[in-house]
Amino acid sequence: MRPMARGLGLAAAILLAAVAIVLLGSGGREPAQAEPVGHAPGLHSLRSCNHLRTFLRHHRGAPSGIVGVGMPGVAGDGVAAPGEVAPTPAPAGSPTNVQEEGVDEPDIVKTAGDTILTVEGTTLRAVGTTGGAPVLSDSIELPAGPDNAPIAGYQLLAAGDRLLAIGQSYGYAIAYEGQTDIIAPNVDYPGESRTVLAEVDISDPSSLRLLRTETIDGSYVSARLTGSTVRLVSSSYPGAPVADQGHGRAILPRYRLHDQRTGKSSSGKLVRCAAVDRPSRFAGAGMLSVLTIDLARGLPAVDADTVLTDGQIVYASPSSLYIATERWSGDADPSGSEPTTEIHRFDTTDPEATEYVASGQVSGYMLSQWSMSEAGGVLRVASTTAPPFAQDGSQQGESQSFVTVLATDGDRLRAVGRVGDLGQGEQIYAVRFAGDLGYVVTFRQVDPLYVVDLSDPTDPRTVGELKIPGYSAYLHPVGPGLLLGVGRDVDPGGVPGGLQVSLFDVSNPTAPLRLDRESFGHGSTSEVEYDHHAFSWFEDAALAALPIDFYSDLAEGHALAGLRVTPGSADPLGRVARRETDAPVLRTLELGGRIYAIEAGAIGVFDPSTLAPLDSLRY
Prior knowledge:
The chain is mainly beta and 619 residues long. The strands form eleven sheets. Strands 6-7-9-10-15-16 form a six-stranded antiparallel β-sheet, with no helix packed on it. Strands 36, 37, 38, 39 and 40 form a five-stranded antiparallel β-sheet that branches. The longest helix has 15 residues, at 9-23. It is globular.
């Protein structure tokens, strides 16, 4: 059985969340400088499985008030402020375009020395690049879900000689002999998805070895790696049907661990019933769990925290983990309410434990993890309000966006400053924080790029604005005072068209300029618009690389675009048609002075100076 080191953890966070819902239930617009609601006493332990079962029955069918889906993103400049923990070095060779320096993110490609590790479906491959030419060193099959349930794609994290593959499966919850925490069969809860973890020894790329696998009840939300410690966030739903147990349903999420080396297996509850906490006011029937996994030791987790709540968006700095949950103040009639986003902070400085610190909230909803950034001991958050609607469906008022600064005050994340009126009637499409500046893109028909000065956390100010047609969905610094935006152009009526890449001069925050624009034509899109891991910036070559997909009446295909960035322009090197397959380009990385493009079933090698093809490998 795994060791568990738990404190108040998530329960303290969720109590504050529940109080916030009560006080914001009027549905009126929040004042410009409103603060998060304070913490109140009254945390309750469920004490036993009987108490937990009774609680769930009582709240059967109650709405959780959760609306919102997390998207990938970035924030921050990775520089530690006085009093903060300095970033640990990024895992050696990780090619992933990440949010914070020193905090790796799960992706389909990692590197170990001169070896590329890539996953496609359930196949993990090690590709050697010694001498520049890609050579398949080894491949292994990662586990399917329980009862051979399909896996909806694996993601990878690697540190030292260990790799953790994280997959998502769907089906029944895990059953084990002698269980006593069963809900009566007539309790109507939906089925349970499961998170599948696979620990792989990558010390010898020519001989990959699957060491341990673990299946956990619940949906995979996100994960982060700092040093050799993984924080994995999963969300489960009490009452999932139990396989081969027609007489009832499971209350708690469970795990099943299998050691491939010894053939031994073990299973049990992820957390005890008596260790599950709840707030004074019902905050949803979901169970959010944070697992702390030390890759130097391998599976299972060394710490776990679980509470009755939900979570959608995860952001991590080198010393903190933030989990955000979107809620509506009027659960019964969301159309008459406005959303708020609750944010819970956890201390991650201890590699073997994750400790709850504080909670707070902001008006509106967040775009993604890009909407959060920790710097100088405070958290900066970009959010957009949604206007309430009348009974006839008409809109009452207009949306607007904010940047709110939250400072930790005891167990509260207290708002110490806020700037609003960003994009009246529009919503946020992209956010990037860099040092004392924040860049916010909103859109409805034109693309306002706002520059926010955050040097004084108590007095954030909009200092610059640029309005141009179209919008950017991803922003990336590409040199001193330069910002690259990947998004769409629009027609005169404001309808989004094809892919465009814009180069902005932000050296003068009060007067941002667009220096150049490259348009890729009607029907062109890029995965970068919704997944920043698909973007690569090769600083030494001043080269931005991104995949492009073409879908139109005239042409359909896939390409790799390279743009050489100079202070005055982003000059395209060309669009490289894939020769090996007709599959899209998934990721690009640099090893040994060469660019490697990973696609389904193949890897291409290119010259970073010209993007001329040099070599390739087809699996």
